[in-house]
Amino acid sequence: MPKFKLDETDHKILDLLIDNTRIPFTDIAKKLEISAGTIHVRVKKMEEAGIITGSSLQVDYKKLGYAFIAYVGVFIFKTSQTQFVLERISEIPFVTVAHVTTGKFNIFCKIRARDTAHAKDVIYQIDDIEGVSRTETMISMEESINDKKRLLHSIFKEI
Amino acid sequence: MPKFKLDETDHKILDLLIDNTRIPFTDIAKKLEISAGTIHVRVKKMEEAGIITGSSLQVDYKKLGYAFIAYVGVFIFKTSQTQFVLERISEIPFVTVAHVTTGKFNIFCKIRARDTAHAKDVIYQIDDIEGVSRTETMISMEESINDKKRLLHSIFKEI
DNA sequence: GGTGAAAGCACCGAGTT
DNA sequence: AACTCGGTGCTTTCACC
């Protein structure tokens, strides 16, 4: 893997864009005291290198009536069925992420739902998949940080 | 909580913006066959209503050398210490999310690291927090979907 | 790799229906 | 609510350093 080399200026650009993709390049240019054209070229390069893969809107799902978050650990009868089950789980609406994991569970996923009744429906769909022996649910009662900016800072301190 | 009412047009706008925040409003306008000014007004309203809370850049952390993802379940001696431990965990670099949960664990978090050695450092920092009795780590070996667009579609089908 | 200017667009508020 | 329109400001390219 040919690692793309980012310099201090790229770090600063990413830092400004990471939690506000709509900040004008002219504003970034003023802050970094370089020209807007340069910002444009550098961002484009980072996109081409695959460092920047896209942008996404942050939506408040609570406001849409979807305040419920849970993590579901999935046990599978035979590990050879893992891939099959992973694909089925990934197709279920309201499952937002799924991982094959080492440790307690074979598969581990996150769900977002309206309420407990709705979550139950989703979990039952997981339980119903062929090859799943049982599931274990952890309901999120409080979410703390979820800060991309901080992660990026930690990474930039190291590289 | 006064729920904000989104109509079909708002759905379509969010659908286009959710995975491309830099799409010009004029492009959205063309696709939906309404004026760009209207797109502008509607987006602003959704921002004011707190439905849209911001935007973020998607960065490929693998390309930056941070390919390791694990989930860590945390056991705490006394549940009264939960809040304290949650705050300490949230301060640790490379912990990306933390939840207070029901079920097996008291706290549940996600970490992003360079490799296993680096992850070990992070997990030891969690273990060292006063009040933590032990942790259980699940290493992600494969991540499947993580698709905001799909979640949004599922929600729009219901509301 | 950076600049600065110019052309082309997009944004966004005001006024209108 | 939605439209049009115009001033302002942003993006993007390019010749030049």
UniProtKB/TrEMBL annotation, chains A, B:
Residues 6-67 form the HTH asnC-type domain. InterPro entries: ArsR-like_HTH (IPR011991), AsnC-type_HTH_dom (IPR000485), Dimeric_a/b-barrel (IPR011008), Tscrpt_reg_AsnC-like (IPR019888), Tscrpt_reg_AsnC/Lrp_C (IPR019887), WH-like_DNA-bd_sf (IPR036388), WH_DNA-bd_sf (IPR036390). The keyword Plastid does not apply. One of its GO terms (biological process) is regulation of DNA-templated transcription. This is Winged helix-turn-helix transcriptional regulator. The keyword Transcription regulation applies. Gene3D superfamilies: 3.30.70.920, Winged helix-like DNA-binding domain superfamily/Winged helix DNA-binding domain. One of its GO terms (molecular function) is sequence-specific DNA binding. One of its GO terms (cellular component) is cytosol. It holds the Pfam family HTH_24. Keywords: DNA-binding, Transcription, Transcription regulation.
